[in-house]
Records
---
Amino acid sequence: MGASDFANLPHIGESVRRKEDYRFLTGGGQYTDDVNLAHQRYAVFVRSPHAHAVIKSVDVTKAEAMPGVAKVFTGKDVEGKMGGLPCGWLIHSIDGSPMKEPPHPVLAQGKVRYVGDHVAVVVADTIEQAKNAAEAVEVDYDVLPAAVDVRDAPKGTALHDAAPDNCCYRWALGDKAQTDAAFAKAAHVTKLDLINNRLIPNAIEPRAAIGSYNRATDEYTLYVANQNPHVERLLMTAFVLSLPEHKVRVIAPDVGGGFGSKIYLYAEDVAVTWAAKQLNCSIKWTAERNESFVSDAHGRDHVSHAEMAMDKDGKFLALRVHTDANLGAYLSTFGSSVPTYLYGTLLAGQYATPQIYVEVDAWFTNTAPVDAYRGAGRPEASYLIERLVTRCGWELGLSQDEIRRRNFITSFPYQTPVALQYDTGDFPACLDQANKLADVAGFDARRKASEAKGLKRGIGYSSYIEACGLAPSNIAGALGARAGLFECGEVRVHPTGSVTVFTGSHSHGQGHETSFAQLVAARLGISVDAVEVVHGDTGRIPFGMGTYGSRSLSVGGSAIMKALDKIEAKAKKIAAHLMEASDADIEFTNGEFKVKGTDKKIPFGQVALTAYVPHNYPLDKLEPGLDETAFYDPTNFTYPGGTHICEVEIDPATGRTRVDRFAAVDDFGTIVNPMIVEGQVHGGLTQGIGQALLENCVYDRETGQLLTGSFMDYAMPHADDLPDFKLGHVCTPCTHNPIGSKGCGEAGAIGSPPAVINAVLDALRPLGVKDFDMPASPARVWDAIQSAKP
Amino acid sequence: MQVQLKVNGKASTLDLAPNTLLVQALREHLQLTGTHVGCDTAQCGACTVLLNGRAVKSCNMLAAQANGAEITTIEGLAAADGTLHPMQAAFKECHGLQCGFCTPGMVLSAIDLCKQHPKATEAEIRELLEGNLCRCTGYHNIVRAVQQGAAAMAA
């Protein structure tokens, strides 16, 4: 079934209310911390209070003698007994050398490298006993100088022996000579230095893990708040603990938000699993929020210099970018791929720029590891391009609308100079609709009204593109990926015609139990209630790569569609037998199998029953049962894109910036459930606006202490920080998956930050403010206004 | 020490350590795991319950402080036959939840909010939700759900 047939099925495009909501609304959800197992003990981690220090000694004698304490494990206990945490993507430097890949031990070996690094784990009968004993673990540190800002890394004290200059890799993409040549001929060059501020993901459910071991069967079970349980199992068994996968079951039950931070294999997950066998029990660890702040993978943290070469009409000739990316103290699971394959490859944006050359230097610093956070590389790319393009327009005296229109890609497929091939899109249509939705025509009047009140008003544009559904496996492998990028779906039709779908995708708020059920119900012509969706358990699902990079529907849904193709093909043979017709004459529509050109038909349920009660069945040709599994490996990324327009009002007396209006027009291809899609956009926009106005992860530049270590210091967006969003859609279906969907989960977080900051700059330009880095907090805005004064 | 709580209409006498938080009493002693813990600093509101009808953060008070009180948790809102409370129904109808983790606290805060401010405007609702963080929905649909739930509760 092709994408256009699929989009026309009944119930596709309907805002079906979510099946999962009842349990969440009544306290019936089961998050990891809600699970309690027999013989359960509790783990508390002893974490480094220093950003960089040599561990001279760890004395656990006092702690182990305390009441209820089963054991305190230190780095020495795990040394040689397990591998380090692996990195999933090998990047090569421009000189061909592989990235520096220093060990990432589960418990620190001789040295700690960031505040929160794991020094020891205490296991006790109660959480209080474990906490008390953790206080009694005596660690003697020899403190070393710390480097936390990426600009300090090259001259900082080496974190790892394997990387004496703290450089992990120096990567580049594009044709440097051609790009330099284009710059030499340019009529105008616009330059911009900018910082993409470090963020802390802050899912409201803190990470949690319960490791369990059964000596009788030599089997492990790990309950964990995680976005991809099979990948968690693969990484842990194959690379760290050297266990056969069939002995380890990973269950990620209801998960309270992820946003990337729960993709990764963390030290805590390995430690509780390994320790469960050592102590022959179950061990539960639940992060307190302060632990989440210091130990969840952080996001963003780029320092960039960008230059755009243009002809006299403002047509882009070439883009040159240098970025220094902060990887944190260790390579997290996908940390190395974020500033390269998920960032450098997106730098064409929506524009037909003939030459692009990007260099990325990636550095180790004494901070928590940095990895993919909602958008992962694409927000960084989009922020850079969309800030730069707006500045290009201002320097040439062109409006934000006009500079974009002059350079949009208008013909597809389009091969960018940075590896990707966009399949579809209609960028002017998104811009046109966004202009209307934002009432740009009325902006001048609104600005005058603001000025009459002594306030400044600005408008900001962002026309972003992103790449979702990371793919295909063979190309990704050639580019350094150490994992496949397919998805798996199993469709199990029950004898009475209801269906259970097992998906390798994982839902942690995205509503898969509803949208995937809609997909299956539409294809089979049955009710949404007749479809159950199972995810998040390696013991039940054949395989899976999980949910990240907005891949669930386009990749996970496509795997289910492939399984449904097989179900339909087999069911047609059964129907043909029942109606004594040829297989080729059977058509399947609206839940009924019909013999073409006749009035003979039977419903889907009858075929299902026949498959399991094969009394009248072609047993010589077909196996009983109606249960099919499919794996789908996409042939390309999908390319959602759109235009976001933000209007801010700033009080120059206080620096307070208020987002007054926000319009977002996105192209997600085929939409299965508009309500769920809009909800995803709302959430993404809020995280993006949060980055632009409020959120900032701040380490003390000297000591490496995390200054924004709680919700009292790290400004999370509240309900009254946000305007009423206006959303619109353009649909150019993805050409290479059977649904036509492109992905929507990260779009809001990718498109919105540059729109907000362009609006802030638009408002402040008349005051002489030329540049501004996120977040636009009142103090920073006020400061910018004051410093711009002559 | 002994603490008496009437939770969701059912009286219990709990034998607790004096430093037991109300949220621990609910989650660990009464197995009412719908009340969640999302932060250490009383900012996120995931642990919100109703104490004698008013929304409180159960991670921010000792169980002993609630001695003798009537507590309503998310498990106690729906009718005995499972019919959702109008505010729960409004959250479902308006897609006011995604991962569901902040949802119990958000629903209970919303109920108290509507009782105290039955005619709250959208801007006032946004301000009154200050004590509850949601990282998924962007609050957009939560605000709509509170408006719809308030109307249904008043009807």
Note: The two ends of chain A are 65 Å apart (CA to CA).
---
Amino acid sequence: MKTWKKVVGLSTAVVLLGALTACGGGSKEKTDGSSKKTDENTLLMYQIGDKPDNYDALMDVANKKIEEKTGVKLNIQYIGWGDYKKKMSVIVSSGENYDIAFADSYVPNAQKGAFADLTELAPKFAKDAYDQLDEAYIKGNLVDGKLYAFPVNGNVYSQQVLTFNKQYLDKYNLSIDDIKTYKDAESVLKTFHEKEPNIAAFAIGQGFKAQGDFDFPIGNDYPFAVDLNGDTKKIINQYENKDFMDVLKTMHKWYQAGYIPSDAATSNTEFPLEGNTWFIRQETQGPYDYGDTILSNAAGQELVSKAFTTPLKSSDQARMANFVVANTSKNKEKAVEVLGQINSDPELLNGLVWGIEGEAWEKIPDKDGKIKLLDGYKPNTHLPAWNTGNNKILYTQDIITDEMIKERDESIAKAETSPILGFNFVTSNVKTEMSNIANVMSQYLDGLNTGTVDPEETVPKLKEALANAGYDKVLTEMQKQYDDFLKK
Amino acid sequence: MRKKPVSKVTIRSFNRPVNLFFNVLIAVFALSCVLPFLFVVAISLSNETALAAHGYSFWPQEFSFFGYTYLFDQMQDKIFQALFVTVLVTVVGTLINSTATSLYAYVISRSNFPFRRFFTVFCLITMLFSPGMVANYLVMTNLLQLKDTIWALILPMAVSPFNIIVMRTFFKRSVSDSIIESARIDGASEMRIFIQIVLPLAVPGIATISLFAALGYWNDWFNALLYIQKDSLVPLQYLLMKIQNNIQYLTQNAGASSQLSGGMAAIPGESARMAIVVISTLPIAISYPFFQKYFVKGLTIGGVKE
């Protein structure tokens, strides 16, 4: 009895206290919140990834430069890789106030009107940076003829490569000179698997997609593709395409031979680049990877890649790292100005991407745009290049020669542009069918792509399930929209 | 048909084979609950390379405390901060939740309370219709301005309608009107009746809903995902979820860009992740036995009429 009285008394007291502090805290928060909002001079930017350990130091340097030029400061809020999608969708649908964000689901959100229209703002307030963008970036990001994003100028084209762990190539004396397709890699895989049966020969897991010369109007989770080696005016189902079928058969053969981990369809096992738990992996590379330089750097060991698709400027690449300005933002012009500065001011951008000058790196005298890394260059003390700003104005280390840079620019000029660059499929008439198709695909994707199931048996089943889901209706609609798009 | 002579009356008991069958069934069920956890413990004590080579096993192939040492070397500040937040939220939240729930439930359990029907329906409606995430988000951030405060982790779960209904039935069953009547005749006030007479009788029920609440708070990570951005307020479960989500994102986008992997911070290995799971589940698992004795009485929504 007595003790209960005490407990109840105590808990009531706690609750009351809680209520008080809640109100107190709430009101304090209110003033904070409103001061944040009324603080006209700080722009809020959401960015994907992990906050760097020395964020404050980095931003101190950067904000000095930004404030000098634009009169505002930048505050970057980081949201983790895996949480970004969820959190941004809540922020967008609740109409919360922010200024700049790394775009998530760019096209649907742009169609909804969540982002500010930058068609006129970008060339006006961020002229320098805008002029440096490859044309494919603009074309690939137009939604209903308007530009809603400021893309990061970087890997405008990409190609799929098979990346080999060089330590094993040397150890077992394997040659990869004439590998141009998945099939060509079979003999090295075989040799390797005999020697090292416990190491993942072809290291893939859940979410892996077998690749070919295709581009996908709504992403490769869906069975809609354009065959780049065939009739590019037609949208097809890649699972009905002979070349792709051969690729799937190859995967299945590899799976049965044990080159692919037996739990690939469901596993989230990581195969660290720097590790030795893998022999071949699939990667995507573009011009700013300078061959295998960036990859080998990230791995801390030498890796060799062989491309098996043609370099392609696709919508995916154009939207790789888009920055958008919120429609709810009160400082749209300033936001564009800041984006423009990040993408055109080498001092500012390199201070973010390489870290703090003098601590992490220093310029090499009399060599323009070349730097030397110092001991202070540590992981997580600088921002990633691909989603920060214009790669073209980044300083390079000495290992990147002038030839490489020349080659990079030539390869960009040479790369093929995807026929569907800038094509956005409007799903409003076929919403039900689309979600049916998504459900069907989620059952089959991982099994087929990782070679776990036999494509000869499964693909017909997939086709049947797709037909029941209303595939033809969607295909007709997409083809119609695509024809209209091609006429323009 | 001759009737069998009755030798023994056994009410409320199964005959032997049936009894054995049910025992085996329950044992299998119990094992299926315990084994995964043992599995996790085993993985957390395994050597990372052995894991990659031999896969998982119930007995670690090669013992190593690397997972735990990694946690205490690399992530010490984060883990302890998160553990503190989780414990704080659980304790304060459980107190608030059990207080609010029992008060509400007691009031609507009393037959002489005039607005009984209204408040019962009011509570049921919140249970049956959920406004959806965005509406919740708007209330929490715009209306209450609770973004990035500890209250954002406590208040969304401060009252649970289902527990209110359970408690209401419990009060109705375990506290008869006659006791309340007689206390009233002896001159006790409403508050005194509740605290001195009703509560002691309802201890099993309160213990049960407190456990539910504590579990809910301990395991909650979604509110943290929505409302918490400060590192200092991240609870343990969300820390784990973050790591898991990052790994998933990375493997799903493996090969999306080599630059992506370059910009990633190091991710703890399998055994370290499982070590976090162990650390985050053990405390609440250990607190179970303390509530055990109340369970049998408390967990029935009840169908007995007086």
Note: The domain at 65-251+265-301 of chain B is CATH 1.10.3720.10 (MetI-like fold).
